[in-house]
Write a structure and sequence with these properties.
467 residues, alpha/beta, Alkaline Phosphatase, subunit A, 2 domains, 15 strands, 17% strand
Length: 467
């Protein structure tokens, strides 16, 4: 147990002494899914996928219908969530390469901040913001880590991946360990073991499932449940991760911790084209700057403090998780750099009706976008701008540049002003994927089907058109 719960040893005494712990401090749990579609949950209106436990979580709190992550791919989105800051401020703009790069060590994570408030901090699942020691979860504020460092991996044991030299191997802190069974189940087993830890301190847990990211691996019993289903693999994987979230909720209730546990639930970006997910009625998907790429299902539940059964349509961001968590923990401000997120506690408690954000911004390489509560601006370098009214045209199909020139000009100025505050990207992604993403953006801006959506399709398309 001493190995499992390092925060109960030396590091516990280091941090607990910094603050008198209040009995009212909540446990804080962030449940992050991977590549889940906006429309793929019962509480969001889905009819063909079963999510009874996630729906139970939504009913126990508040869900947001206009919530966004800071990037449309995994690594930069996670960097924004973990720091509460636009990740472009520190050059973490694109998906991270597997070599020596990682999330800027000068940035304070939510785990760093909550440790100063006396919390035990646990990270379980997919990391994807750096593989080397300087970027490891144990270096970035987490007392204990069980998961893998890279972007994606098999859900079942794989001897090529599960070895000490692989960034996709499962680690307990810094040591590779073998596992058996299905990875979503294994991650949940670990989460429950930490929740059951005999500690006098509140915990912060970042439960970062790799479900429902490809590969589309599901347990046979779950596949059998959805035999003949049009989205069989996704339905089976969704059922399993929902079941496991239910296990976590049940354990919190069994231990009488649920009432004073603040839970956030969301996806790291929009649904992927490759995993059968749905972003309906939104335009776009993972990897592009239309709403389907970055608008996500978002639930916040804290039975002791937040009224349940409501939904909020105001503009909200994953950036707000950091600020909300430290406010709930009793910190007056962040111990790190200024946050871009804000505390959601006023709007969640009903003390405020103001939108958490008047404006949100995105940029990745040659693609950028900006949101207000009503309008959306999309820019593709070398191609131009599109302006949409989401109030009247949720699917971003009607371009308003000519009819709203002053709105266009104002938003371009705002976007460029935000960009002037950013660092240069520290790395870029593979040029083949960049070319594919560019084509997808251009097609969506022209309201047509892309000529290709993978590098393989791009190669075939160019070969056919060169003849």
């Amino acid at each position: 147990m001493a190995l499992l719960f390092a925060c109960m040893g030396i590091e516990r005494s280091m941090y607990a002494s910094q603050k008198v712990i209040s009995e009212t401090q909540p446990n804080i749990l962030v449940i992050l899914l991977d590549d889940a579609g906006y429309a793929d949950f019962g509480f969001m209106g889905c009819k063909d996928l079963e999510t009874p436990n996630i729906d139970r979580l939504a009913k126990s709190g508040v869900f947001f219908t206009d919530a966004h992550v800071t990037a449309t791919v995994c690594s930069p989105s996670r960097a924004g969530l973990l720091t509460g800051r636009y990740q472009q401020r520190f050059g973490h703009e694109c998906n991270i390469p597997p070599e020596d790069s990682g999330m800027d060590p000068s940035e304070i994570t939510i785990a760093d901040a909550l440790r100063t408030a006396g919390y035990c901090t646990y990270m379980i699942g997919k990391w994807h913001v750096g593989n080397r020691s300087a970027y490891h979860p144990n270096t970035r504020g987490f007392d204990d880590f069980f998961g893998f460092l890279e972007g994606g991996r098999d859900y079942f044991p794989n001897e090529k991946l599960d070895c000490p030299t692989s960034y996709k191997a499962i680690l307990r802190n810094r040591n590779q360990v073998d596992f058996s069974g299905y990875l979503t189940d294994v991650f949940t087993d670990e989460a429950i073991r930490y929740i059951e830890a005999d500690t006098e301190r509140p915990f912060f847990m970042y439960l970062s499932y790799n479900a429902v990211h490809t590969p589309m691996h599901a347990k046979q019993t779950d596949l059998d449940r959805y035999k003949g289903h049009a989205r069989q693999e996704l339905a089976a994987m969704t059922w399993n991760v929902d079941f496991n979230i239910g296990r976590v909720l049940d354990k919190l209730e069994e231990l009488q911790l649920r009432k004073n546990t603040l839970i956030f639930f969301l996806s790291d970006n929009g649904g992927a084209e490759s995993n059968q997910s749905s972003c309906y009625p939104l335009k776009g998907w993972k990897g592009n700057k239309f709403e389907g790429g970055h608008r996500v299902p978002f639930v916040v539940s804290w039975p002791a403090r937040i009224p349940h059964g409501n939904h909020i349509d105001k503009l909200t961001s994953s950036l707000d998780i950091f600020a909300t968590s430290i406010a709930a923990a009793g910190l007056n401000n962040t111990p790190g750099k200024p946050l871009d997120g804000v505390s959601l506690l006023p709007i969640l408690s009903g003390d405020s009706t103001e939108a958490p954000h008047q404006k949100l911004y995105w940029r990745k390489d040659r693609m950028a976008a900006m949101r207000t509560e009503t309008f959306k601006l999309v820019r593709l370098e070398g191609f131009g701008y599109r302006l949409y009214s989401l109030e009247e045209n949720t699917d971003e199909s009607i371009d308003l540049r000519k009819s709203h020139p002053s709105q266009l000009s104002s938003m371009i100025e705002d976007l460029e002003r935000w960009e002037s505050e950013l660092a240069s990207p520290m790395w870029y992604e593979d040029e083949n994927w960049n070319s594919v993403t560019y084509e997808i953006h251009q097609a969506l801006m022209e309201n047509r089907e892309p000529h290709y959506i993978t590098p393989g399709e791009m190669k075939l398309y160019k070969e056919q058109n060169d003849k």
